[in-house]
Amino acid sequence: MSILSLNDQLVDRTKSALYLYYLARASLREEKRNVIRRKVELSVRQMKKLDTDKIIRHVGDLHGHIICALDKENKILAHQKGEELVHHTFTHKISTLDNKLSRYLTTEDARKKRIEHLEHKITKAFMTKREKLAHLKHDINRLTKLYHAAKKTKKYNAAQLLHFAKRIEHLKENTHALR
């Protein structure tokens, strides 16, 4: 996009080209109107100076100029209405596309945020799983040491030792279930 800087005002050349084109067309139409008006005024002035024979001929010419001017004016108005319709259609299409683009950008941002949130939840779940596994392994090691120490001291009876062994086996099953 090329932007021209004029006295602290930014002008977008791509958008202003169409605007300048229509300004030039309007200026050309205005010049044609002025030429036709001058012809009519000249004819009226000449009519004032002429005698009756020439007046009749000039009235016919004047009538032709007036009809030509009205015809061109009607053509210009019809063309201008067509251009306004095209301009309105383009403006509507541009606003529709702008709305679609803004909706797309907002949904894309929302989608990115959801993806980041899900990735965070997944990594958090895996980290939690790793932490649980590490905690279970630590508990298994600690209970295993206690179990071996209790066996050596012979302070505990067989039921209590069996309870230690069942607890260690239960923790090992939990470890396997988490993997």
Written description of the protein model:
- This protein has 179 residues and is mainly alpha-helical.
- The chain has two domains: 3-120; 124-178.
- It is 89% helix and 4% strand.
- The chain has a two-stranded antiparallel ribbon.
- The longest helix is centred in the middle third of the chain and has 102 residues, at 52-153.
- It starts with a strand and ends with a helix.
Estimated radius of gyration: 47 Å
Oligomer: single chain
Overall pLDDT metric: 82
Shape: rod-shaped
Please give the domain count: 2
Sequence stretches where pLDDT stays below 50 over 5 or more residues: none
The amount of beta strand, in percent, is under 5%
Percent in helix = over 70%
Strand order of the largest sheet: 1-2
- Can you count the beta strands? 2
Order of helices and strands: EEHHH
Class of secondary structure makeup: mainly alpha
List the total number of helices: 3
Q: Biggest sheet, in brief?
A: 2 strands, antiparallel
How far do the termini sit from each other?
Answer: 56 Å
